[in-house]
Structure formats: structure tokens, C-alpha cells
């Protein structure tokens, strides 16, 4: 499988060595780093022949979840690509992600469980940023209904604590999220296979907060995208397609 990756996408298997996150990315670095998003679409078009060689799926259901404040349509390009590769890809059906991961995970878990019962097969979940947090919690809640999880740019550690959105949530809520996630990862670790895609160029989420050191079946893949560019990044798309088809 490794031979299918582009040169800059690297699988680390277990979490790479990194100091624990201590703060959100510096605000001044956001504009400096995330402007690279502008080059993602031309790169995506240039990589069309390579993406065409990505493995095909078997028609199983895939549900994607957008990032914080992102509308459902933000994941439409990735959905279209996955459908072209034989996946039954759908949005989460809950519109813009308003930043309510706990209640949204409960609602989505019911939908996922119903879908798995209807199709007779577990559902795959793909989450971008906060959407990945929701995907992880759905897998924790209904592990029998989720076959695999793929996240990119997702703050595994601390919820919003080490993200550019920390100020919007507030210190007290960040602390509550952090304690709750730590408690769940200790007492009820996620057993579903997870692929956690991250980038050191992330200026929205501290990249070391995207490393999962608790889940027993997690693989880390590093790409060269920005955070905002991940939803239209050819490296991310290829890794997602490979993992869903595996």
C-alpha cells in the first residue's frame, strides 16, 4: 500500500514523536500559513491522473462530517470523488457544523446505527477537523455500526483547547472538553480502526493535538496540506480512498 502514496504523504503507523500541545497556533501564523490553501485546487487538478488510479470501493456507505462552522457542501468535492471510486458517499445530513459535538454525535450515532442495520454493513466515517471529533465519538458510542474512521486535521487532544477556535469556546468550556475526552479515552478507548491524517503546516489546529496516543488501532499519515486546504487536497483524497477501500 505504501507505494501508492505521493512522495510527501507519509505513514507513521503509531504516533510520531512530538511534544504535547501547549497552546493554539499563534494567530499571526494563521494568515502566513493558510494562504497556501489557494494552491490546493490547481494541484488537485494536476493530480487527476494519479487520483484516477486510487483503489475502488465496494459500494459501502460512507458518511462525511464537515469542520467547525463549515457547511455540508464543503465536503461535496470529496464526496463526488469517493462516489466516482465506487463508494456510496453521503453528507451527514445536519447542515453546517455549529460546534455542538456532544449532541451532534448522539444524533449522528442514531443515524449511523439505523443505516448499518438497514444495509447489513458497518458505516465508514470521514471527518474534517471538528467533524473528526464527532466521527470518533460516534465510533465510540456505536462501535458495532462503524467499520472505520478517517479524520484529517482533527484535534484528538483537548477538543477546541489547542485550536484557533479556543477563544470562541472559552477557557471553561475548553477545560471541560479536555477533561471529558481524557476520561473517555482512558475508560472507553475507541476500538474502531482509525486513520488520523495531520499536517505540520496546520495553522488552525496544533498539529501535535492531532496525534492519537490512546486508541489501540490507529494509523497516522502526514501530508503537506494546510488545514483549510485539506478538504480539497490530493494527498488527503488519496489516503481517504485507500483506507476506505482497504
Kindly describe this structure.
There is one protein chain. Helix 5 (101-119) crosses helix 6 (130-141). The radius of gyration is 17 Å and the shape is globular. It has a single domain (2-15, 22-202, 214-245), classed as Alpha/Beta hydrolase fold, catalytic domain (Rossmann fold, 3-Layer(aba) Sandwich). It starts with 9 loop residues before the first strand and ends with a helix. A seven-stranded mixed beta sheet has the order 1-7-6-5-4-2-3, with helices on both faces. It contains nine helices and seven strands, in the order βαααβαβαβαβααββα. The protein is of the alpha/beta class and 246 residues long.
Task: Provide the descriptors you would attach to this structure in a database record.
15% strand; 246 residues; alpha/beta; Rossmann fold; 9 helices
Strand order, sheet with most strands:
1-7-6-5-4-2-3
* Major sheet: 7 strands, mixed
End-to-end distance: 9 Å
Specify the CATH homologous superfamily.
Alpha/Beta hydrolase fold, catalytic domain
How are helices and strands ordered from N to C?
EHHHEHEHEHEHHEEH
- Count of helices? 9
Low-confidence stretches: 1-7
Q: Could you name the CATH topology?
A: Rossmann fold
Strand content: 5-15%
Question: How many domains make up the coordinates?
Answer: 1
**What is the CATH architecture term?**
3-Layer(aba) Sandwich
Sum up the overall morphology in one term: globular
| Mean pLDDT over the full residue set | 89
Amino acid at each position: 500500500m505504501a507505494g501508492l502514496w505521493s512522495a510527501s504523504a507519509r505513514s507513521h503507523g503509531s504516533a510520531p514523536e512530538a511534544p504535547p500541545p501547549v497552546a493554539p497556533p499563534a494567530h499571526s501564523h494563521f494568515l502566513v500559513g493558510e494562504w497556501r490553501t489557494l494552491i490546493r485546487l490547481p494541484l488537485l487538478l494536476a493530480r487527476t491522473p494519479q487520483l484516477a488510479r486510487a483503489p475502488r470501493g465496494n459500494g459501502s456507505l460512507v458518511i462525511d462530517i464537515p469542520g467547525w462552522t463549515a457547511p455540508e457542501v464543503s465536503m461535496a468535492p470529496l464526496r463526488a470523488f469517493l462516489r466516482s471510486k465506487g463508494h456510496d458517499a453521503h453528507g451527514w445530513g445536519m447542515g453546517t457544523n455549529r460546534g455542538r459535538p456532544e449532541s451532534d454525535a448522539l444524533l449522528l450515532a442514531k443515524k449511523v446505527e439505523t443505516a448499518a442495520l438497514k444495509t447489513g454493513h458497518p458505516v465508514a466515517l470521514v471527518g474534517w477537523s471538528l467533524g473528526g471529533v464527532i466521527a470518533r465519538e460516534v465510533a465510540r458510542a456505536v462501535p458495532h455500526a462503524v467499520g472505520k474512521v478517517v479524520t484529517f486535521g482533527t484535534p484528538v487532544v483537548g477538543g477546541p483547547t489547542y485550536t484557533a477556535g479556543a477563544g470562541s469556546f472559552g477557557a471553561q468550556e475548553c477545560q471541560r472538553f479536555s477533561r471529558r475526552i481524557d476520561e473517555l479515552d482512558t475508560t472507553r478507548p475507541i476500538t474502531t480502526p482509525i486513520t488520523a491524517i495531520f499536517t505540520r503546516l496546520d495553522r488552525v489546529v496544533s498539529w501535535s493535538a492531532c496525534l492519537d496516543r490512546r486508541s489501540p488501532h490507529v494509523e497516522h499519515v502526514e501530508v503537506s496540506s494546510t488545514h483549510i486546504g485539506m478538504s480539497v487536497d490530493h494527498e488527503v483524497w488519496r489516503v481517504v480512498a485507500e483506507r476506505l477501500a482497504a
